[in-house]
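pasting FdrA family protein for the record, 508 residues
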Amino acid sequence: MIEAIIRKGAYFDSVKLMLVTQQVKSMPGIIEVGVVMGTDLNKDILARVNLLSDAAQACSPADLIIAVNAEDRNAFDAVIAKIDGFLNASTASGNHIAYKPKTLVGAMSAQPTSNLVIISTPGNFAKVEARKALNAGLHVMLFSDNMSLADEKELKELAQSKNLFVMGPDCGTSIINGTALCFANQVRRGNIGIVGASGTGMQEISTLIHKQGAGLSHAIGTGGRDLVSEIGGMTMLQGIRALNEDDSTEIMVLVSKPPADEVADKIFSYLEKNVTKPVVINFLGGKPGKSHPGRLEHVATLEEAALKAVQLARKTALAPLMTADEIGSLATRLKSKIGSNGKYLRGLFCGGTLNYEAIIVLEESLGGVYSNSPLDKKLQLQDPYKLTGNACIDLGDDVFTQGRAHPMIDPTLRSQMLTEQINQDDVAVILFDVVLGYGAHDAPANDVVDILKRHADKLATKVLIASICGTDEDPQHYEQTKAALENSGVIIAPSNRCAALIAGKLLA
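structre below
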């Protein structure tokens, strides 16, 4: 039986609803369940698993939808009771009620020594709250997105006039004085500092640095649009100045998708004239500036950025994580598994920068790769749910996250698309990332492992390749995650670059 319950005007945070869904989906007699707000995107997702009723279709984004496919009425009633229990759970702990400030003033009163605020509210409210925080003398990490460029510029100008930082909007990763904020990994302290307009780019670099035995002083997020013409790299330049003056930072790494040309030139000029410390620059797919060996080093990939930073810190050369011979040998061994109908690669990425780096690497061997964020706009997917040819998709793009949690938190959408690609006869290779760390799903491999078990008959003629962005100190346990995936037949590469190189070699 399929039935939906609609709760008009009952708003819940998308992360809470994802956690509720995860808690109840394995209850006895439950075939499929969705607990979501009534946004258009969520309706599309319900429709894809046959849970969208007429009543659910008529909902507004302010309405809660509880849609269930159950074996019988008893199972349906049981899951509804469990969902209601989770949604109505008190914040009480023992005999005490957890204090949750409802305003910035209340939060400042509760924690008067704090000097940084993380803001995660809808974009139309985020500017107001950020301005309040700046006027109160607080640095701002703006997790919120959907803010206009004019508002972003205004906030950053206000911040700089007060010698404060605005990291964001749409800033999901920072590490300040060893404290991981939002989506970040647990890495050791060290002498390498990062400034990045790329969340998963900073995560990949920081975790690879950690795996080489080195560590970070800080990782300052700027927000993904900081290097567009209208903003001019304000936060990146501010971060560069801060790290150049920071005694604990000896090496700097800059990471971003391609900046606007004039912004890149501004940053290169500032570095040449004002920065005395060695800097590694990884503007993925962007034009390189002039290199000065040992001082300004331009590299093409995230892996190279991490290894070059460690090399500069240790003054010792480092080998790549996999040699060309190792990649070629592995690809040759795996190629015999691909079925006669298999000819395409499909990449399913939670990390936008990991997706972008993979495309850069893949196009060297496969030519053009279709995407919702392609290198060539001619390869833009018309419908990001319908992959064609060799294609890589950024599942964290705004089109997928409006009204629902990011795929690093909620793997539901990626799981659905993984299932679809496994069942496509012409798909030979599936490439994906697994991102660990604070804020990410507590067991990101579990859904993948479950899907591979259910569709084992389809995997005999396909190769699955993944990289894990994480460390041995992350809460999800890197080695356990790696073992679970390998035991299910997934090839685990030591970096996103290596994973893409192997995948490209297979189909070249």
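The domain at 104-314 is CATH 3.40.50.261 (Rossmann fold).
The mean pLDDT is 94.
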